[in-house]
Design brief:
Layout: E1 10-16, H1 23-39, E2 45-50, H2 61-71, E3 75-80, H3 83-86, H4 90-102, E4 107-109, E5 114-115, H5 119-140
Parallel strand pairs: 1-2, 1-3, 3-4
Antiparallel strand pairs: 4-5
Length: 141
């Protein structure tokens, strides 16, 4: 008889850089995230990192894998350096937020100090998402 091992959900750390010239950006994000994890006494985490991928793209390999793992119940929370790392389009952020809400997975953004476990965090998520899209559109001008 095969023994079945049930793995406990882990925290997802999401890192993204827009160009392949941003190695220090990825390192900065990783260092801030792992420092936060150590300060929070969270040891069980997995890193999802998309390199040289626009936050406006609907399809991103690691972002898509993270969403699949959330759907499967493998993720108990998501932490990212900044909301803009998750996406630069309100639609992408809204879809992610809907998935997180369905699975009761909180989201923390370090730079903005947003935690969607709070009413204020939910509100600020929407505001910062719109600002991230505005910034992207200004950069593209």
């Amino acid at each position: 008889m095969k023994a079945s091992i049930k793995l406990q959900p882990v925290t997802a750390l999401y890192i993204r850089t827009s160009t392949n010239k941003q190695d220090t950006g990825a390192e900065t994000q990783f260092n801030a995230l792992t420092k936060f994890m150590a300060e929070s006494d969270i040891e069980n985490y997995v890193v999802y990192e998309d390199k040289a991928v626009s936050g406006a793209k609907e399809k991103r390999p690691e972002f898509d894998l993270m969403k699949q793992d959330i759907k499967k119940g493998k993720i108990k929370s998501v932490i990212t350096y900044s909301l803009s790392r998750l996406g630069r389009k309100c639609g992408i952020l809204t879809d992610l937020r809907r998935l997180l809400d369905q699975k009761n997975v909180p989201l923390i953004m370090l730079q903005e100090k947003i935690d969607t476990n709070t009413i204020e965090g939910n509100f600020m998520f929407q505001i910062h998402g719109a600002v991230a899209e505005l910034n992207r559109n200004e950069i593209r001008r």
